[in-house]
Amino acid sequence: MRATSSRVSNAAIAQPGQAIRRRRNTRTACGRSRRKTSTVSWRLLSTIPRGFQHVLPAVSLTERKRVVFASPKHHHGSVDLDVLGRCPIFRGVGPAELEGIRMNARRQTLERGAVLFNQGDPATQCYVLESGRMRLVQLHPDGRVVIHRILTPGEFFGGIAALGDEAYPVSAEAVEASTVLGWSKEAMRRILSAHPPVALNLLRLQAQRIQEQQERINELAWDRVERRVARAVLRLARQVGRRTEEGVLLDLPLSREDLANLTGTTLYTTSRILSQWEQRGIVRAGRQRLVIRSPHTLVEIAEDLSLPADKEKPEEEH
């Protein structure tokens, strides 16, 4: 398959796509000052209210890597159609219509750690994850990172591009080597006009995502940290869980820091909770590996049906 390669461009201050150069004074070993020029990438977070914007370095959790673009004419149709058929927004669409939708897509292959789009970039494309694992990540003004969603094959994302001229509110990063199918906003709008069931499915999906976000906001506001972590682990088990002799393995690289970023807590608190669960035989945690050994106990914690391991201790945070 013939492919061309390109690097994901950095975003700029205020207006995405514009680069700035910053000059700063540096001292040489002999004490003389010299001018040093460096190109710095910045992001103006669109989520900050007007008048309170903060300019932050536009950095991802890992260094940006190469993204490889493949020509659509080399697609294997059966594979693409199978993935599209599992995608919620294409439910009820026949094979002939799916083939037409597929022909408008562009396949992109990402290495592990590559960034498909960055928070604040203009939303120009919608995507379906064909293979691999990705995550949607948001950088907050105080430097904290929140993982909003782990994506698995067949999931649709970047839908804001189809609904308006907005910027992506999150960054999309490959957790492992991944392949996505992308449609330009113009192509997706033509698809929505030509196939009303797709438009209805997209509205349903967006409503479901809003409801999920509201549930997570409620968890952050009212639930104990241990319960939040239990619910996050169970959500991942439903997405990527695989039964093994040890128990239910979360089949994706997952560090304790990732789990903390998923639940809006600290690495220290997440590590303490996992250590307590290991002592009780609920999970087995390794380096970027988590096995649920007692799913029923984890459900009891998530639903607040059992006495938590640290009930007598005051909560460090919410």
Task: Report what the structure shows.
With 318 residues, the protein is of the alpha+beta class. The protein folds into 2 domains: 66-218, Sandwich (Jelly Rolls), CATH 2.60.120.10; 224-302, Winged helix-like DNA-binding domain superfamily/Winged helix DNA-binding domain (Arc Repressor Mutant, subunit A), CATH 1.10.10. Helices cover 33% and strands 27% of the residues. It is built from 9 helices and 18 strands. It has helices spanning 77-86, 95-103, 160-163, 185-194, 196-222, 225-240, 256-263, 267-279, 295-302; strands spanning 3-7, 20-27, 33-40, 42-44, 55-57, 66-70, 106-110, 115-117, 125-131, 134-139, 145-151, 156-157, 171-174, 178-184, 241-243, 248-250, 283-286, 289-292. The strands form 5 sheets. It has a 6-stranded antiparallel beta sheet. It has a 4-stranded antiparallel beta sheet with strand order 8-13-10-11. Strands 15-16-18-17 form a 4-stranded antiparallel beta sheet. Helix 1 (77-86) crosses helix 2 (95-103) and helix 6 packs across helix 7 (256-263). The longest helix is centred in the middle third of the chain and has 27 residues, at 196-222. It is globular, with a radius of gyration of 22 Å. The N and C termini lie far apart (50 Å).
